[in-house]
Amino acid sequence: MTAAESDLDRVIHALRGGDVAIIPTDTVYGLAAAADDATAVALMFALKRRPVDTRVAVLVADLAQAERYVLLGPTGRSLAAAFWPGPLTIVAQRHAVGSLAAGDDETLGVRCPADLTCRTLAAAIGPIAATSANLHGHRTPRTAAAVRDLFPGVAAVIDDGPRPGAASTVVTIVGESLAVIREGPISADELESALEVGDSGGSAGH
Question: Most Cβ neighbours (<10 Å): which of 47, 105, 109, 135?
Fold first, then answer.
């Protein structure tokens, strides 16, 4: 399901104009900014009342978009084939320093969410820097209405019903070795199993 066309247009216009929007993902509601706009990313964190975290991950439309910015290699592609679209953030070596206002000098986290609205936005404007829509140190509300109450100054909002609230699993594959940074909906055992299937020449799936 995608959001109403008018809501999508409003958010696309806001993100292209350097504003922050509230969008649904497959895990939580998020504050979102165009990932190539450092000023917008800084504004996103100012709204959270939190220091700017340049290591914020980005949401992408698909595998091809992710590979424009990071080197996924065989390990990353196997994980993407198994768990994308879905709640898996892959931290990998970035192609170029400074192309996006996210990640660090060497790495960038990328995720293709199981939410068509998110993927449509990323296809329209490019990777989206996103962070949970909460005030620093507080839980993320499950509904858009509650998030809107927290951030009344954010005009562009997509309401797509309650979100499950579980943050994505985060892994790093720098150097082709898998390390779990944060275990979420996808377990370490599931990750290892997907790589074993990939190594054996099979295909992994949900």
Answer: 109
Could you tell me the two tokens for 7?
């809501």
Regarding beta strands 21-24 and 156-157, do their DSSP bridges make them parallel or antiparallel, or are they unpaired? Answer: parallel
Domain-embedded: residue 55: yes
pLDDT (0 to 100) of residue 176: 72
The verdict on residue 205 lying in a domain is: no
Q: How far apart are CA 147 and CA 152, in angstroms?
A: 8
Range of the structural domain that residue 143 is part of:
5-199
Contact 204, 187 (CB under 8 A): no
Instruction: Please state, in angstroms and rounded to a whole number, the distance separating the CA atoms of residues 125 and 109.
Output: 18
Is 204 within a domain? no
Tell me how many domains the chain contains. Answer: 1
**Residue 202 pLDDT:** 46
Confirm if 191 and 180 have CB atoms less than 8 A apart. yes
